[in-house]
Write a structure and sequence with these properties.
It contains three helices and 14 strands. It has helices at 67-74, 126-133, 190-194; strands at 15-16, 23-24, 30-33, 36-39, 57-60, 63-66, 90-92, 95-97, 116-119, 122-125, 153-156, 159-162, 181-183, 186-188.
C-alpha cells in the first residue's frame, strides 16, 4: 500500500541549504523533510525534475518522487487497462487488476472477493457462468458448473453429464467410471444394451 506525505510551508528563520547556496529567510516558503530544508521551488522530483514544492510526494531510499513519477516507476500496472494501481486492486494468478477492471465479462459485476470462473482469459460471476457459458448436462439439462454437488463430470463424444446423472436409461444404475453403451443418443449399462 502506498502512502503519500503532504508538506506544508514553514515559517523559518535563516537556514543554509545543502543543495543550493541561497539563504533561506524568514517569511520565505520553504519545505523541510528529514531535517533538510529546501526553498519551495528547489524541492523537485528526482525523476522528472519538476517542482514538488508543498504537494504530495513519495520518498524511496534517498530519492523523492512526485505522485506521477512514483506511479509510473513503482506502482503495479493493471493487466486490463494498463494504468497504474495506486490503491486497492486485486490479484488473480499473480496478475494485478483494479477492482473496477476485474469484472464479469457478461454483467460487469465486480468479482473481487466473489466466486467466479475463468474461461479463455475472461472472468464470469457464478450466475453468468451457469446461464451463458457452462455446458449443459446431457441428463438433467442443468448447467455443469463445477461448484458444489456435481463437480465431477463425465464427458463422451463432445457431450457432458454430471457424474450423478450419468445413469443407465433403463435400469438407472450409475455408470460414472464404469463400462457403458451409447446407443440412439442414450446411455445404457452393458446388460440393458443387450436387451435392446
Amino acid at each position: 500500500m502506498m502512502t503519500s506525505t503532504v508538506l506544508f510551508p514553514l515559517q523559518l528563520t535563516v537556514y543554509k541549504l545543502m543543495v543550493a547556496s541561497h539563504l533561506l529567510f524568514q517569511g520565505d516558503q520553504n519545505v523541510e523533510y528529514k531535517k533538510t530544508v529546501w526553498h519551495k521551488d528547489c524541492f523537485t522530483c528526482s525523476q522528472c525534475k519538476q517542482v514538488i514544492g508543498t504537494a504530495s510526494f513519495f520518498p524511496k531510499e534517498d530519492e523523492i518522487y512526485c505522485v506521477s513519477c512514483h506511479e509510473h516507476k513503482f506502482a503495479k500496472t493493471c493487466v486490463k487497462c494498463k494504468n497504474a494501481i495506486t490503491s486497492g486492486g486485486v490479484s488473480y494468478e499473480d496478475r494485478p487488476y483494479h477492482a473496477e477492471c476485474f469484472v464479469c465479462a457478461t454483467c460487469t459485476k465486480k468479482l473481487g472477493g466473489q466466486r467466479f470462473t475463468a474461461v479463455d482469459d475472461l472472468f464470469y460471476c457464478v450466475d453468468c457462468y451457469k446461464n451463458f457459458v457452462a455446458k449443459k448436462c446431457g441428463g438433467c439439462k442443468n448447467p455443469i458448473t463445477g461448484f458444489g454437488k456435481g463437480s465431477n463430470v463425465v464427458s463422451y463424444e463432445g457431450r457432458s453429464w454430471h457424474d450423478y446423472c450419468f445413469n443407465c436409461k433403463k435400469c438407472s444404475i450409475p455408470l460414472a467410471n464404469k463400462r457403458f453403451v451409447f446407443q440412439n443418443e442414450q446411455i445404457y449399462c452393458p446388460d440393458c444394451a443387450k436387451k435392446l
